[in-house]
Design a protein that fits this description.
about 300 residues; alpha/beta; about 45% helix
Length: about 300
């Protein structure tokens, strides 16, 4: 598990009867793998994690592991309310064949710094899987500070951070303090290119679910030093990337997946498909993006 490159936080596909739609899910995963993504992340916010039961998570992990056939890692997100359930989720992830874990702080309860540290350390000690801490104080109201990472990195299997602080300078602070001991992945689509240029190792991406080739192209071009070519694609992409920084990011991105033929609009209640003026606005952005979709350079 290298914790680098483009890692789609994939959407979970549902049928109109609210069952897992493994047929469409497989189509999307194949598109991601064919585009050259570097890992698959299941059950994140975009994957409607809070609505999935344990059996569904088991099915998704095992099905994805079979689909990718060892070509790329499969990571499962852990977002639980209790330490006990998080440890159980980590045990299950290992049992079902996941390669790594992404972890949020405790859900619903705003834990103190000491509680947050104890939570992460307890799970890390319970599993041999490598862990990426998901640091998103904007949405989840708990920040994992550099001082806290100093303590967490005593756990050898805590390897990376998905940085969603919205603070680009945080990447430099992490590099200055920890060197390459802590891998950094951008967690905000609209800051991806900036983060990669500042030294981030990768991009946990959202709109990649609909546009995998364009997302991978940006990463690979930056890695090859072809910044102007990457910037041209990124500027085209920005109106679409802004669909990721919305409370309705799931509905937005699923609409984009419909446009590119690798998804459906089905969401799980209490979410509903977009309606009215907001649906028209999002569709207009997607339609314009499709009309102006760039020709990608050779990589």
């Amino acid at each position: 598990m290298k914790w680098s490159g483009v890692m789609p936080a994939v959407t979970t596909k549902f049928t109109q009867k609210d069952d897992l739609d493994l047929e469409m899910f497989s189509i999307n995963i194949k598109a991601q793998v064919d585009a050259g993504v570097h890992a698959i992340i299941l059950g994140g916010t975009l994957g409607e994690a809070s609505t999935l039961d344990d059996d569904e998570k088991k099915i998704l992990i095992e099905h994805t592991v079979n689909l990718v056939e060892g070509r790329i890692p499969v990571v499962i997100n852990i977002a639980e309310q209790t330490t006990k359930n998080s440890i159980k989720s980590a045990e299950n992830a290992e049992k079902y064949g996941a390669t790594g874990i992404m972890m949020l702080p405790p859900m619903r309860y705003k834990s103190t710094d000491n509680e947050t540290l104890a939570y992460f350390k307890a799970v890390a000690k319970s599993t041999s899987l490598p862990i990426m801490i998901y640091n998103n104080p904007v949405d989840y109201k708990i920040e994992v500070t550099l001082e806290m990472f100093e303590e967490l990195l005593k756990c050898e299997n805590i390897k990376a951070v998905k940085d969603s602080t919205r603070d680009i300078t945080n990447i430099t602070r992490i590099r200055n303090r920890f060197g390459n001991r802590l891998k950094v992945l951008c967690g905000v689509d609209t800051l991806a290119m900036e983060s990669l240029l500042m030294g981030a190792d990768g991009w946990v991406a959202g709109l990649v679910c609909a546009f995998p080739k364009e997302t991978v192209a940006i990463f690979e071009l930056i890695r090859s030093g072809r910044v102007e070519e990457a910037l041209e694609i990124y500027r085209w992409f920005m109106p679409l990337l802004e669909l990721d920084i919305s409370p309705q990011l799931v509905q937005n991105i699923k609409l984009a997946e419909v446009a590119t033929g690798i998804g459906t609009e089905n969401v799980r209640l209490p979410r509903l498909p977009l309606q009215g003026k907001e649906r028209d606005r999002v569709l207009s952005i997607i339609e314009n993006g499709m009309k102006t979709r760039p020709k990608l350079p050779m990589l």
